[in-house]
Amino acid sequence: MRAGYVSLPKSIGSATRSTPFSRTLFRTSVLPQASATKLARLPTSAAPPESKALPRSTSQSLAPVVSDDLPVISTDGRKVAIGWDTRTWSRFHNVWLRDHCRCPQCFHPITKQRLVNTFEIPSDIAPSEVESTAEGLKVSWPSSQPHTSLYPWSWLQHNSYDPALRQRETQLDKILWSSKIQASPPTVTYEEAMAEDDRGLHKWLSHVDHFGMCFISGVPATPEATEELSQRIGFIRETQYGKFWDFTSDLAKGDTAYTTLALGAHTDNTYFTDPCGLQLFHLLSHTEGSGGSTLLVDGFYVASILKELHPDAYNVLARTPVPAHAAGETSALYQPFPSSGYPVLSHDPVTGELIQVRWNNDDRSVMNNLNSHQVEEWYNAIRIWHKLLTSADSEYWVQLGPGTAVIVDNHRILHGRSAFTGKRRMCGAYIGVDEYRSKLAVLREKFSSDNEVADRSVWSPAL
Ligand SMILES: [Zn+2]
Predict the structure, then answer these.
(1) Ligand 1 centre distance from Cα of residue 381 (Å)
(2) Are residues 351 and 253 both part of a single domain?
(3) Which of 179, 292, 357, 377 is a Cys-bridge partner for 420, taking CB atoms 3.0 to 4.6 Å apart?
(4) Residues 154 and 213 in one domain
(5) Residues 6 or more apart from 40 whose CB is under 8 A from it?
(6) How far are the Cα atoms of 178, 192, 299, 326, 416 from residue 188, in angstroms, in the given order?
(7) Helix (H) or strand (E) holding 384
(8) CATH code of residue 74
(9) What total of structural domains would you count in the chain?
(10) How many whole angstroms from 94 Cα to the centroid of ligand 1?
(11) Separation of CA 36 and ligand 1 centre (Å)
(12) How far, in Å, are 63, 81, 82, 304, 386 from residue 160 at the CA level?
């Protein structure tokens, strides 16, 4: 195993995670009551020192605000500056603060929707008074529109943009895995997943979030039970293949999935603008034959190796849009919009993190958007990508049987199967990425120890 990658697993629980920092910083800053306040009356010329955006590692030293050491505040006419410690300042524009007031007149406490009329805020609005209190930053707005706003310190730290102090959470909990995961793959039982208190569902979806996949053992080998299991997460996403699918190798749909042929590692729906988020499948029976092992590959793991060993190839896959189609049924002709397609590797435009792998070489359309000099580099890049995807280190092969379902994050995990003989009956479902993320977010609220998160207060970090 290469240095820098998570070796899996001695036991999954001991696998390294990127960093626990931001969770503790912003979830433990409960403010004790205190009478001490620091008052800053306008006008003031005390401008904060120009601090550069802090490197993320430095921000780890930022301690939660405690009452006997309230942040120092100062204003310069356009912004309010908050000194968290002697080195760390956050600056907030006046108009930004007024727009983000979350008192009940400005933000509906139930619907969590903005009520303040952003466009009635004078562009030159400035506080008449700012105050550092135990509860947070208190801002009084001038008498033409008299109003007082109170912003909790933890909320200001979380949402600090000048400089950004929080570590984005999207990739923090991802555990990249190789074929070694076979020793102890993430699994929940059917009873856990179906239990009414939702703790098992939380465990299940947390595994999916961390590993991009999870097995479910002890599932009754029926389409009904499997459909019910799928619906624990959210609406099943209906596609041209139906809603909940239950099929054999009879070419009932014009797609290789409905044959006995081997399928290389791929993600589904590369021909959709919005590929499905999760895919659950369950082999209900396999009679009169053999073969048909399931192949799982962590696309994020393989991408991390590609990035390290072949950065040029990585960049080609990150910037080249790939057209695709689903055209095996005369009644349907799917292409992503725009039809030039999307790159194999998509990144968060703000953080630059890898967020999605789209790869199905079988469904790729004509590559007619390449410049002459890009053709050979494109084929070189996908040749390297294919080689890494199909290496013994990447490929996790598992023989599924009735009773064990598997769910994969279709934006991260590639799946495939070996050829088989005989009759296989497979059932399963797609679940939209937004339904899955919404359910996971709700379960995190439900089992959070942070009151602002658990009660979905107007100061929840998600809003
Ligand atoms: Zn308000």
Answers:
(1) 53
(2) yes
(3) 292
(4) no
(5) 46, 73, 74, 75, 129, 130, 131, 132
(6) 20, 6, 22, 34, 22
(7) helix 372-389
(8) 3.30.2020.30
(9) 2
(10) 13
(11) 24
(12) 14, 11, 10, 30, 41
**Confidence category of residue 26, pLDDT binned at 50, 70, 90:** very low
Domain stop point among 108, 139, 167? 167
Per the CB < 8 A criterion, the answer to whether 232 and 193 are in contact is yes
State how far the Cα of 116 lies from the Cα of 101, in Å rounded to an integer.
8
- The rounded Å distance from CA 107 to ligand 1 centre is 7
21: CB partners within 8 A, 6+ apart? 60, 167
CA angle 449–450–453, rounded 5-degree value: 120
pLDDT category of residue 461 using cuts at 50, 70 and 90: confident
Q: Residue 385 sits in a domain of what CATH number? A: 3.60.130.10
Element (H, E) at 131: strand 129-132
Separation of CA 117 and ligand 1 centre (Å):
10
Helix runs in 170-198, H state only: 190-194
Residues 350 and 289 in one domain: yes
Q: How does DSSP assign 224-255, residue by residue?
A: HHHHHHHHTTSPBPPBTTBSSEEE-SS-SSSS
47 C-alpha vs ligand 1 centroid, how far in Å?
Answer: 26
Q: Are 59 and 167 in contact (CB under 8 A)?
A: yes
Closest CA to 166 of 49, 60, 84, 66: 60
Q: Are residues 236 and 284 both part of a single domain? A: yes
- Residues 159/3, Cβ–Cβ less than 8 Å: no
Mean pLDDT of the residues in the chain? 85
